[in-house]
Design a protein that fits this description.
Number of domains: 2
CATH architecture of the largest domain: 3-Layer(aba) Sandwich
Helix content: 10-25%
Organism: Terrabacter ginsenosidimutans
Distance between the termini: 38 Å
Protein name: Sn-glycerol-3-phosphate ABC transporter ATP-binding protein UgpC
Pfam family, one: ABC_tran
Largest sheet: 6 strands, mixed
InterPro entries: AAA+_ATPase, ABC_transporter-like_ATP-bd, ABC_transporter-like_CS, ABC_transpr_MalK-like, ABC_transpr_MalK/UgpC-like, Mo/tungstate-bd_C_term_dom, NA-bd_OB-fold, P-loop_NTPase
CATH superfamily of the largest domain: P-loop containing nucleotide triphosphate hydrolases
Bound molecules: adenosine-5'-triphosphate
GO molecular function: ATP binding
Length: 369
Amino acid sequence: MATVYFDEATRRFSKDDAPAVDGITLDIADGEFLVLVGPSGCGKSTTLRMLAGLEPIDGGRILVDGHDQKGVRPRDRDIAMVFQSYALYPNMSAAQNMAFALDNAKVSKAETKQRVAEAAKILELEQLLDRKPGQMSGGQRQRVAMGRAIVRNPKVFCMDEPLSNLDAKLRVSTRSQIAGLQRRLGITTVYVTHDQVEAMTMGHRVAVLRDGKLQQVDTPERLYDHPVNTFVAAFIGSPAITLVESDVREGVAHVHGLTVPLDRAVAGRAKEKVVVGLRPESWHVVDTPAHDGRKDGDGTSLALNVELVESLGSESFVYGRPVGAEEGADRVTVRLDKRTHLRVGDVVHVEPNHGEVHLFDAASGERIE
Ligand code: ATP
C-alpha cells in the first residue's frame, strides 16, 4: 500500500497550447479511493497516465510513498492500471490474461496459480477461467481486467473509466462491487470518470478538474454542500443546481422578483452582482395553480411557467422559467417528493428553503461565505 503525492504536476503536449495538466497538487492517503472527475478533455486520463508512468511529466513531481517517480519505468512502478477498453489479450484465456504480468515478473508457477485462483474467487470468475475474451460478456471481461490488476497486489490501482463499456444496470452493480473490493483490499486507488454519480458514490474523496486545473478536492458530501465555485456547483448534482445571476441591494439578492435575504456576514462580502445557486431539493411549492392566492413577484415566492415535468415514480422534477422573464432566462429546477399533478403550461409558485442558498461572486464564480 502507498501514499501518492502530486506536487505541482504538469503536462504540456505542445508549447503553444495551455497545459493539459496544469500544476496539480494532490495528496492521496494510504488506502484511499480518490476519484478524478471532470468534463471531457479536462486532463483526467493524462493525470492518471503520469502516475502510471505512461506519460512524461513536464513540471513538478509525483511521489509514491515519498519516492519521486521520475525516471522509474512503468513496469517498475508497482502500479496496476485498468483501462476502459480492458486491453485483454484476445488469444489468451481469462486465467492466462490474469497470469501474464506475473509470468513476466518471474513469479513462480505455483504462486501465480494461487494468486489467480484467489482473484478469480473474489471476482466470481472461477467458472470462466478457460474462456477467451471473445467468449465473455462485457461485465465478465471487465472483471478479468480487474483480476489482472489484483493478482499483482500492487501499491496503487489506477482505473481509467473501467465501467464505461457496460450497460447502465451493470454499471451500477459493478460500481458497488469495485468500491467494496477496494475497501477489502485497502489498496490506494485513483479512479478516473466523467460521470459525477460514479464519482460521488465511489470515492472517499473526489477531485474535480477543469481545463487541467484542480478545482476542489473533498468528500462527496462537502462537494455537494460546499462547492467552491459555480463550475463545481454545476458539475456535481443531477439534475443540476439552478444558478441565476442577480443583484444584491441592502443585504438582499433579487432573482426575477424573488427576494432572497442573505446572511449578514455573507451580504457584507457580496459585491453588487452575485450568482444565487439553489439545488432542486432546496425549493418548496407554496401554492398550486388551482389555489393561486398570491401575486407574482411578491418577494417571497417565484412564479414559474412549467416547461417540463419528469416523473420518476418516487420523485418528480419540474423545470420552469420565471413568469415574465426575458427570452433565454435560466431554467429553474424543482424537485418534488411525490408525483405531481403539474403539467406543462401550468404556473407554480416556489420558495427557497431557508439556509439552503449558495452564493457566488458573479465575476469570479468563487463561493462567498
Ligand atoms: P476524456 O474524458 O475525454 O477521456 P480527459 O479528461 O481524460 O478526457 P485527457 O485525455 O487527459 O482528458 O486530455 C487532456 C487534454 O490533453 C485534451 O485537451 C487532449 O486533447 C489533450 N491530449 C491528450 N493526449 C494528447 C496527446 N497525446 N497529444 C496531444 N494532446 C493530447
